[in-house]
């Protein structure tokens, strides 16, 4: 493990990564860019004001500060190819390439990938026309924006009217994109099982479950995540 590590992002996941990395005797210091209040001057952890959207500047920062490893948690930057650019410049980086990141950043790409490889997924259709998007006959619907905002702009609709309002908001009123994906709503428990792999060996993490809905009792609008717990007793 490198002496100096850079974690890119500002959310809870980056905070957790920095907190755990700082516990390693092999890590001298952890920079977090841009970081948050919890990662500011916290022992071996400190925030950095390096402009993360500019990959050239990030690369130079890594060379100037002898960064041995970069971990990228921010999804928009992964989709923008920051891992590709850092690796091309000789900076060791943990995170998916821009092409692989499409599985999280591009809903239509991900759904088509699942269909193409025979991986079970909810029925879905992509639309560029709001009127056509309102015509789906799924009994309950999940409406997603396509693009960087897609993971956050999700509406779980229990009626056709509610789904149409979400389509209108995404495609016309708030301009989150020119395309929406309407999916069949699958009822039941949802969990994540993440794995690390070097292309040969797979190491599985314990299953975890995230809190998506804003209010208690799984009520209120969907969010990007209100927290998570692990292990999951349902599995």
Automatic annotation (TrEMBL):
The keyword Magnesium does not apply. InterPro entries: ATP-grasp, ATP_grasp_subdomain_1, PreATP-grasp_dom_sf, PRibGlycinamid_synth_ATP-grasp, PRibGlycinamide_synth, PRibGlycinamide_synth_N. It comes from the Eukaryota. One of its GO terms (biological process) is purine nucleotide biosynthetic process. SMART domains: GARS_A. PROSITE patterns: ATP_GRASP. One of its GO terms (molecular function) is ATP binding. Pfam families: GARS_A, GARS_N. Residues 111-190 form the ATP-grasp domain. Keywords: ATP-binding, Ligase, Manganese, Metal-binding, Nucleotide-binding, Purine biosynthesis. PANTHER family: PHOSPHORIBOSYLAMINE--GLYCINE LIGASE, PHOSPHORIBOSYLAMINE--GLYCINE LIGASE, CHLOROPLASTIC. This is PUR2 protein. It comes from Crotophaga sulcirostris. The gene is Gart_1.
